[in-house]
Amino acid sequence: MCLATVIKKSDGTAIFKNVSRIDVDGDKLIIRDIMGDEKLVEGKILMVDLANSMVEVDCK
Q: C-alpha angle 5/13/31, rounded to 5°?
């Protein structure tokens, strides 16, 4: 199983680790980790790097 780390583009900090799913609802991202914990972030996905399990977002 491949899990991702979601990072904030502006400063490179990790928003969430061990991410198994991201749902997009307009300008909202519902990010879920392997344990089922969720985080709601306003923003957009800028880049998905599958080889390095990284998702870069622009968030408010």
A: 40
Q: pTM above 0.70?
A: yes
Q: What is the pLDDT of residues 1-21, one digit of tens each?
A: 679 999 999 999 999 999 999
**Looking at residue 7, what DSSP letter applies?**
E
Q: Kindly tell me the sign of the dihedral angle through the C-alpha atoms of 2, 14, 34, 57.
A: negative
* Alpha helices (runs of H) in 1-60, residue ranges in sequence order: none
Q: How far apart are CA 13 and CA 24, in angstroms?
A: 21
